[in-house]
Amino acid sequence: MTATDSADAGGSEYDWLSLDADEEIVWSGNPHPMSIVPALIFGVPLIILLVGIIIIVAAYLWRENTEYVVTTDGLYTKSGVFSRNVQRVDFDKVQNISFSQGVVGTYFGYGNVDISTAGGSGVEMQFQSVADPKSVQERINRLIKENRRGSDRRDEDAPEKGAVLDEILTELRTMRETFERIEAREGGGGTQEPRGGSQQVTPRQPGNEHQSDDRTDTDGR
């Protein structure tokens, strides 16, 4: 596999990646095919002793099982022939990126991209023997700047969103208090007493009226 540019390079080929929901692959690659030339140079003369075969096979397997991925959020490497070693570095932790090329790498067009992190000691991640390491370095630097600008914009928008939420909550509280006052007025309207005070009127009993009339008649007699 050679270096590729992709905005949607998912699938089983990258089953070792654990990407976030909004994270996309921007670039992927593995060591340049000519990176095994040094192994051939040292291995071929030693083929008679069988050591050369081991050197060449090991270099080939290393290249085939090493992958590098750049996403919209960070950097990934996968290595290991019989086991799998995956490393990730987020953009916000990257402190410095540099590239280097040896004599053979300069001739064939490949080199190393070294990534240093804040608080780390030396190189924390390395894209070894990738094609055109200068362009890879520039691409990563550009993505880091875009990522940090996006983070700054999100930080600037956060206070504005908070202020809008506060205004909405204040309006909701005011509406609730208004409704409570209206309900209190409607609920107490039927039990209010007249301003002049209350008077108790006792109805006359029918028997009492007849007794009063009888007394009057007796006195008149």
Strand order of the largest sheet: 1-2-3-4-5
Q: What structural class do helix, strand and pairing data support?
A: alpha+beta
Inertia-based shape = elongated
Q: Quaternary status of these chains?
A: single chain
Q: What is the rounded distance between the termini?
A: 138 Å
Kindly list the characteristics that best describe this protein.
three-stranded antiparallel sheet, alpha+beta, five-stranded antiparallel sheet, 221 residues, 5 helices
Describe what you observe in this structure:
Residues 191-199 and 209-221 have low confidence and may be disordered. The chain is built from 5 helices and 8 strands. The longest helix is centred in the last third of the chain and has 56 residues, at 133-188. It is of the alpha+beta class and 221 residues long. It is elongated, with a radius of gyration of 43 Å. Strands 1-2-3-4-5 form a 5-stranded antiparallel sheet.
Can I get a quick summary?
The protein has helices at 37-43, 51-64, 103-108, 133-188, 206-220, and strands spanning 4-5, 25-29, 67-71, 74-79, 85-90, 94-100, 110-117, 125-131. With 221 residues, it is an alpha+beta fold.
List the SSEs and their pairings.
Blueprint lengths: L3 E2 L19 E5 L7 H7 L7 H14 L2 E5 L2 E6 L5 E6 L3 E7 L2 H6 L1 E8 L7 E7 L1 H56 L17 H15 L1
Antiparallel strand pairs: 1-2, 2-3, 3-4, 4-5, 6-7, 7-8
